Amino acid sequence: MSTLDKVVAITGASSGIGEATARELAARGAAVVLGARRTDRLDALVADIRAAGGRAELAETDVTRRADLERLVALAVDRFGRLDVLVGNAGVARIAPVAALDVDDWDAMIDVNLRGVLHGIAAALPVFREQGRGHFVTTVSTSGLKIVPGQAIYAGTKNAVRTLLEALRQESTDGVLRTTAISPGYVRTELVDHVEDPGQREQAQQAMATLGISPDAVARAIAFAIEQPDDVEIGELTIRPTRQG
Ligand code: NDP
Description:
Blueprint: E1 7-11, H1 16-27, E2 31-36, H2 39-51, E3 55-60, H3 66-80, E4 85-88, H4 103-131, E5 134-139, H5 152-171, E6 177-184, H6 198-211, H7 215-227, E7 236-239
Helix pairs in contact: 1-7, 3-4, 4-5
This protein binds NADPH dihydro-nicotinamide-adenine-dinucleotide phosphate (NDP).
Domain Ketoreductase: 6-189
Pfam families: adh_short (PF00106)
InterPro entries: KR_dom, NAD(P)-bd_dom_sf, Sc_DH/Rdtase_CS, SDR_fam
C-alpha cells in the first residue's frame, strides 16, 4: 500500500535520475509534477505512471527561464492543491580543462545547474512560506566533493548549489523549510552523452558503463529524504558506486 501523500515537482524528469525519481515517488503514492524540455518523453512517462494508478502532470520546462519554473509550481498547486517538495534535478555536464576556454559550455552549466536551481527556489519559496512547509531537494554531485581535472566549472556549479542550500537552511530555522543536497557519484544515465570532446566523452561514458549505479538507487535516496517526518531534515546524502574512488 502506498503511503507517500506528498505533491512533488521534479525538474529534469525526462530521463535518468529525474525519470527514476518520478516513477519511484509515484509508486509510493506521491503526486508528481514533471518538468523538462523533451515533452514527448514526459508524455510517455505520465502515461506510464497513470496506467499504473499513479498521479502525474507535466509542463514543458526550461529551467533557464524563470517563468517556466513559476508555471511548474503553479501547475502543482492548481492540480493538487499544494506543493510539498521541489526536486531541482535538471543538470548538464560538460567536461574539459579550463584552458580549453569553452565559454559557451561554462554558460550552459551555470545557466542550468545554478541559475535553474535559483529559479526553482524563487518560484517555490513564496508557496512554501505561505503553506508553512516545504522541501527543496537538489541533485548536486560528488564532483563537488572530490575535485577532478576537467570538471572545474561543473563542480563549481554543484558546490555553489550546495552552499546555497546550506545558507537557505540557516536562514530558515523556523521549521518551515527543509533542504536536502543529494550527491550522486557515477550513475548510468545520458548525462555525459552530450560532452562534445570525443575523448572526454568516451572516457566518461566508459566510467559510467563500468562503474555506474542505477538511477533507481538515487531515486530511493531521494524518496528516503522526502519520507522523513517534518521535524527531520536529511541535509546531505552521498550515494556512489561502492568501487568508485
Ligand atoms: P540526464 O542527462 O539523463 O538528465 C538530465 C535532465 O536534465 C534531463 O531530464 C534533461 O531534460 C534536463 N535538462 C537539461 N537541461 C535542461 C533545461 N535547460 N531545462 C530543463 N531541463 C533540462 O542525466 P542525469 O539523470 O544523470 O542528471 C540528473 C542530475 O544528476 C543532474 O543535475 C546531474 O548533474 C546530476 N548528477 C548526475 C550524475 C551521473 O553520474 N549521472 C552524478 C552526479 C550528479 P531535457 O533535455 O528534456 O530538458
